[in-house]
Design brief:
Elements (H helix, E strand, L loop, with lengths): L8 H9 L28 E5 L4 E2 L2 E4 L12 E4 L5 E4 L5 E3 L5 E4 L21 E5 L5 E4 L2 E4 L4 E5 L5 E2 L1 H11 L29 H17 L2 H8 L12 H26 L24 E12 L7 E2 L3 E11 L5 E7 L6 H9 L19 H7 L6 E6 L4 E6 L22 E7 L5 E8 L5 E9 L12 E5 L2 E8 L4 E2 L3 H6 L9 E9 L11 E10 L6 E12 L2 H4 L10 E7 L15 E8 L16 E2 L1 E9 H9 L1
Parallel strand pairs: 1-12
Antiparallel strand pairs: 1-7, 2-9, 3-6, 3-8, 4-5, 8-11, 9-10, 13-15, 13-31, 14-30, 15-16, 16-17, 17-18, 18-19, 19-20, 20-21, 21-22, 22-23, 23-25, 24-25, 25-26, 26-27, 27-28, 28-29, 29-31
Helix pairs in contact: 2-5, 3-5, 5-10
């Protein structure tokens, strides 16, 4: 499992160290770079320009800590030699003036040679913040107040700060070199993104820049915009996190191709007359909290040597890989499988309850696995074999398959390729108490409806560690029902909880439940209990409290899967789940209940509450491995 990054170490390093100095200069050229070898041996001002059109009264600063916000003094900077220096005035900052010119006092960057070398301003990115109602844009018709805030930046050594330098910087952050045309709009190919396009009278670049600035303004949070619009605001107020600043830039890089295409279509060849304020630009919601999201699952559910399941854990081989696709708001768009999916209606109902925003679920995507031998056959032929597509605007989810993995469930592929009519369409209603009714229409290959199944799910708030009671019906007949039984709860006293605080996983709570249906049930499938680790502990890294609410083990029946020729499941199944230990590199303090791996095993009955949870099993039907990424890292990956 990959840890969340708040801020991402890799992003912070890149934010401070993006290449872009080029040659050096003390006199700012039209292309915005430094190029005559000034060594800054004596304190001189660090000058540049803030440009959309030329911006007057924009807040400009040298972002020496890489967090995308102005940092006041005193601030401490660590030198490469291990020494630390304190900048009493904080990051060098100034307001831009006529023609966008700014001049930063960098005298504090000069250091005593016994401490270390001088800090070179060309090693740090510049930022410029347009303030609503205060920053003025110079236009042919006169100075015009900026209506909404937007945040510009430039790579280290680049001293024009514009929408185009912002785009160039975040493309570089994503690993796209200056000459790369990957994901670069055709209109920008060959264009110098660092230069002063106003002075160069490049109307096309200017039109692109103005449209990009308007898009950036649309993504600034309303509360931040209002804060900056207040009479007393100077643009030095800290509001955005480091990751939020990165997300704004990454979103710009993602949508620049569409924005440039829109400008080209409207302009024809007359870029000077483009009314940017009238363009229909993309409207993109952006989740600036930068949540950690499940992006990949590896399913190991076929034996390497044995004939049947379960088998030794070391004998399991990969039979499927699932990729989770999100939009910038962190809303799930699709799940694609190389191999076979095992669509779980209870899990889909949980997603429906949060409108697809997976990070709102304390535990994302409880495990499921296809045990059909066809899964590994399809997995061994690279490509997407199945997928779930989420249509949140129309309250529908579509399942498509080009495999024979689900024929034992009565689900038959309509084609050997994806892209036709879905094999299952899910739709739903949700009542005022947040209970979800999820209907699955299963189609025959000819498009007619074979059967309809309906899951009635309780509200997430009525569940246990995110696991929600539910009932499944086919037509008018109830197939199965999982309901919480007698009240359970924590089985350890406060003193006993203190004594097990150092253990990674403890069964600290049990929740009895009933499972009806699928008769006749195995004789041993009784006295059912969910095992949980519910504790509040002190995180040694942050010294803050972290609350575990982790489902560890629960049993269930699945006669269709148990009926597969390669599966021996006379006792029923159970899922056993493991989580990242607190303090490990994979642990995410603000999202501590993310599953790291899960095992599908034989049902093992109830066990003693209060015990240290068992290590991973030696035998299993399947193992599911989880990979997570922060939203910012995921979106940067899409750019690459």
């Amino acid at each position: 499992m990959k840890p969340a990054h708040c801020p991402s170490v890799s992003l912070l390093v890149l934010a401070l160290g993006l290449a872009g100095c080029g040659e050096e200069s003390d006199n700012l050229p039209v292309d915005g770079r430094d190029f005559d070898g000034v060594e800054y041996s004596e304190p001189v001002a660090y000058t540049g320009k803030a440009i959309d059109g030329y911006l007057i009264n924009a807040r400009v600063w040298l972002d020496m800590d890489g967090d995308g916000q102005y940092t006041p003094g005193p601030m401490t900077i660590a030198l490469d030699n291990g020494a630390e220096v304190v900048l009493e005035a904080g990051e060098p900052t100034a307001m831009s003036g006529e023609n966008g010119n700014f001049s930063l006092d960098v005298a504090e960057l000069e250091q005593d040679p016994e401490v270390g070398p001088d800090l070179d301003p060309r090693d740090y990115p510049l930022h410029a913040l347009a303030l609503p109602g205060k920053t003025l844009e110079q236009t042919p018709a006169g100075n015009v107040a900026v209506a909404s805030a937007y945040l510009l930046s430039a790579s280290p050594g680049v001293r024009n700060v514009t929408p185009l330098t912002t785009l160039a910087r975040f493309r570089t952050l994503a690993g796209l070199t200056e000459g790369s045309t990957h994901n670069l709009p055709e209109g920008l190919v060959g264009m110098n993104l660092r230069r002063d396009y106003v002075q160069a009278e490049d109307e096309r670049a200017h039109a692109y820049a103005r449209a990009l600035a308007r898009f950036m303004a649309s993504q600034i949070p309303d509360d931040y915009n209002q804060l900056l619009a207040n009479a007393g605001s100077t643009g030095t107020e800290r509001f955005l996190s480091a990751d939020a600043a990165v997300l704004l830039g990454v979103s710009l890089a993602q949508h620049a191709p569409d924005i440039v295409d829109i400008v080209d279509e409207v302009a024809g060849s007359e870029y000077a007359t483009v009314a940017v304020e009238s363009l229909e630009l993309p409207v993109v919601a952006l989740e600036l909290s930068n949540p950690t999201l499940l992006t990949r699952q590896r399913i190991l559910a076929q034996p390497k040597l044995s004939a049947d399941l379960p088998t030794g854990v070391s004998d399991l081989k990969q039979s499927a890989e699932l990729l989770f696709d999100y939009n910038e708001a962190g809303q799930l768009k699709s799940i694609s499988a190389n191999g076979c999916l095992a669509p779980s209606m209870p899990e889909l109902a949980r997603l429906v309850a949060v409108e697809g925003y997976a990070s709102r679920l304390a535990t994302q995507w409880f495990p499921s696995a296809a045990l059909s031998e066809q899964s590994v056959i399809n997995y061994d032929n690279p490509g997407i074999d199945e997928r779930l597509v989420f249509d949140w605007a129309n309250d529908q989810i579509h399942f498509e398959t080009a495999t024979t993995c689900h024929e034992h469930e009565g689900i038959f592929a309509g084609s050997s390729e994806l892209g036709g009519n879905p094999e299952i369409t899910y739709s739903w209603t949700m009542d005022s108490d947040d209970r979800v009714e999820l209907e699955a229409r299963i189609f025959r290959p000819d498009g007619s409806v074979l059967t309809t199944r309906t899951l009635e799910s309780e509200a997430i708030a009525n569940g246990v560690a995110g696991f929600v009671p539910h009932t499944l019906n086919e037509g008018m007949a109830e197939i199965m029902s999982l309901q919480l039984a007698d009240p359970g709860g924590v089985c350890l006293t406060d003193e006993e909880l203190k004594n097990v605080a150092d253990l990674d996983v403890v069964v600290s709570s049990i929740e009895p439940f009933s499972f009806s249906g699928y008769e006749p049930q195995p004789v041993s499938f009784n006295d059912l209990e969910m095992e949980l680790d519910i504790r509040t502990l002190l995180d040694p890294d942050t010294n803050g409290e972290v609350t575990f609410n982790r489902l560890l083990r629960y049993g269930f029946l699945d006669p269709q899967t148990a009926g597969l020729a390669n599966v021996d499941a006379t006792r029923g199944f159970e899922w056993v789940m493991y989580y990242a230990p607190m303090g490990s590199s994979e642990f995410t303090p603000i999202q501590p209940n993310l599953i790291a791996e899960a095992y599908l095993t034989r049902h093992n009955g109830d066990k003693l509450c209060g015990r240290e949870f068992e290590r991973t099993p030696t035998s299993a039907y399947a193992r599911v491995e989880y990979d997570y990424q922060s939203l910012s890292d995921y979106l940067i990956g899409l750019l690459q």
